[in-house]
């Protein structure tokens, strides 16, 4: 059973300050899950929720999706728009708090990568699931909670990073099972639900070990 997730410090102001600062987060390297989970789908309309500097939204647009990238931080969206221009792709960037905003009509694909707004994490995923049209897909990637099984079993201490990097806040972590539980069986088919570990090298050349919960589901009704 999932614990209650709530984090009063993940407000829109918090995220805008992070993205506006000189030491703002780097744009994410391309997620391996994009190709693995989405390459077999026929492109349609897509929303990337909490798109940050836009890596995933740009990937979707470059792979034929009519893409909206939405984020609460205007500074993040400026970075994202510059990167999309450099990549030569078109993305509709929406500046919005996703606990309020919703697309005008359901879309064929909703993705979210490590977006953790103020409030309950699983309630946020439930909200995003309502944006998916029947027949469409939801792809959620979150920080893996230590209760979640994953392929390498190497974080029994709950530390989700290496080197000098702090791990993600505890209350943002989820398991694939917890995400799956918010998708009722009568309306959703779970296509994949896994705990994963991978290494990324940051701009300073340090290796970070990341632990992810990844769920892809099809809306059946
Ligand atoms: C950890 S970053 C991840 C960014 C990107 N998806 C990635 O994987 O690199 C989380 C993102 O969620 C956004 N975010 C947090 N709360 C939000 C909210 N209530 N509405 C919209 N975006 C939000 C933040 O501004 C930030 O860009």
From TrEMBL:
<dbReference type="GO" id="GO:0032259">
    <property type="term" value="P:methylation"/>
</dbReference>
<feature type="compositionally biased region" description="Basic and acidic residues">
    <location>
        <begin position="146"/>
        <end position="167"/>
    </location>
</feature>
<dbReference type="Pfam" id="PF13649">
    <property type="entry name" value="Methyltransf_25"/>
</dbReference>
<dbReference type="GO" id="GO:0008168">
    <property type="term" value="F:methyltransferase activity"/>
</dbReference>
<feature type="region of interest" description="Disordered">
    <location>
        <begin position="193"/>
        <end position="221"/>
    </location>
</feature>
<protein>
    <submittedName>
        <fullName>Class I SAM-dependent methyltransferase</fullName>
    </submittedName>
</protein>
<dbReference type="InterPro" id="IPR029063">
    <property type="entry name" value="SAM-dependent_MTases_sf"/>
</dbReference>
<dbReference type="InterPro" id="IPR041698">
    <property type="entry name" value="Methyltransf_25"/>
</dbReference>
<feature type="region of interest" description="Disordered">
    <location>
        <begin position="146"/>
        <end position="172"/>
    </location>
</feature>
<feature type="domain" description="Methyltransferase">
    <location>
        <begin position="47"/>
        <end position="136"/>
    </location>
</feature>
<keyword id="KW-0489">Methyltransferase</keyword>
<keyword id="KW-0808">Transferase</keyword>
